[in-house]
Design a protein that fits this description.
Elements lengths: L5 E7 L10 E6 L5 H9 L16 E6 L3 E5 L10 H17 L3 E9 L6 H12 L4 E6 L6 H15 L3 E3 L8 H11 L8
Parallel strand pairs: 2-4, 2-5, 5-6, 6-7
Antiparallel strand pairs: 1-3, 3-4
Bound molecules: guanosine-5'-triphosphate and magnesium ion (MG).
Length: about 190
Amino acid sequence: MGSHVVEFVGSFPGEVPATGLPEIAFVGRSNVGKSSALNALLGARVARVSSTPGRTQAVNLFRVDSSWAFADLPGYGFANVPDHVRAQWKELVERYLRTRDPLRLVVVLVDHRHKAQPLDVEMMALLRHLERPSLVIATKVDKLTRNARSKARHVLEAGLDAKILPFSSETGEGIDEVWKTVTASTKSPAPRR
Ligand code: GTP
Ligand code: MG
């Protein structure tokens, strides 16, 4: 999809301001490749790759092509994080997912090489409970052989009870499909909450 016009709206540890745009959120375990995926999707270097895990307990908001807001949510599952940070994460992310009015799609990133992790399963359950539409993208698929990837796909999809989209920030695989889903999701009417 080429490159996009991206403006950083801000980093919000509490209340996230209204943008008037349909919003797409990105969630996933720390180190899953979230920043890389955002950069690949936007054709721009907007998110810092491999920042110190667990430090940013805030929603980072970007305005994209004056058409969408992309919300980069703090990653989960990092090791050695004090309980109060974990609690803060839960509070921030759950409140956002529960209440965010313009949210149209939650892109959940998982690592294609691993089976579904408990926190990923938990996230999927939360999204189903909240009736939030989601798209699971399985990152780093370029690191798998053809054989390994079909096996890994079955394992992941069974564990998450959801279809996955193989994705690679390195090769660009999956980028067009993500954009198709983003575009389609923002054409649907606003959910009533
Ligand atoms: P945190 O913000 O620290 O939670 O990590 P993140 O989820 O934003 O991951 P990030 O994009 O920083 O990537 C983590 C590491 O994985 C980096 O070394 C990336 O270069 C690598 N990586 C990310 N995506 C891919 C991919 O699709 N393929 C390959 N081969 N490496 C990737
Ligand atoms: Mg990151």
